[in-house]
Amino acid sequence: MIVDAWAQHPTTRLVNHPMLDSLRRWTRDQSDSITASDRELPVSVTTDAMDRAGVSKSLISAWTGPQGDLISNDEVAAFVNEAPDRLVGVGSVNIARPMDAVREIRRCVKELGFKGVRVLPWLWELPPTHARFYPVFAECCELGVPFCTQVGHTGPLMPSDVGRPIPHIDQVAIDFPELVIVGGHVGYPWTEEMVAVATKHANVYIDTSAYTVKRYPPELVRFMAGHGRRKVLFGSNWPMITPERCLADIDTLPLDEEARNDFLGGNAARVFSL
């Protein structure tokens, strides 16, 4: 079983947003480049991309930022309802209104059946150590769902410092030892810091979204093959990049069968209680 730990089924609001222009520039010569659209795409676009890569399940996320929802929680729930055996919901919340955020997390988990919460610090230009995040962390602990976030530099033209694993993720894990944290995008150029934090804290994990196998930093590959074999989750960041392209060179990784199976799906199934 292959599980994609970070994906989105895109809305037109997301794919047309100017902040993705820099990503389009990077991928303009690739067949899987992000393309603007004037119509909403059917869920089959996402499940077909999964099929081409042999992905069994994808965790698809909402996107909420200071300017509102680029993908709302209710839209994610509707997408999941169209393909309940393939898609799993991950919610997002407005951290500018902490109590509303807490109530929305409860609704996402208890009513919509979501398996995690994702907030992107760079969207808010606030580090995850900021006070506005802490009610979110507490509620994730209470409900037993992972907090998913982005670590490393920011592809869109926004400040990157908020994605630094040390001190930010390290401090959050110290303050909330029960909180399961999944840091997406491998933490580059601070991957060694992210590996150190995931080694230090029992409930901190890394996902490989936004990176192809050939671009995995060497320190991440060593971690995956060794003592971090139960700590790294496959992710694509679809539709920014296809899962098929992300998995194209999977056989080049120096992973034994157990480590490979854990990376491709076993770790995500355990972390997200799939």
TrEMBL record:
Q: Any idea which UniProt keywords this protein has?
A: Lyase
Q: What is this protein called?
A: Amidohydrolase-related domain-containing protein
Q: Which Gene3D superfamilies match?
A: Metal-dependent hydrolases
Annotated InterPro entries? ACMSD, Amidohydro-rel, Metal_Hydrolase
**Species in which this protein is naturally found:** Tamilnaduibacter salinus
Q: Does the keyword Cytoplasm feature in the UniProt annotation?
A: no
Pfam families for this protein: Amidohydro_2
Query: Which GO terms label this protein's molecular function in UniProt?
Result: carboxy-lyase activity; hydrolase activity
Task: Extract the signal peptide range.
Answer: none
Annotated Amidohydrolase-related domain ranges read 72-273
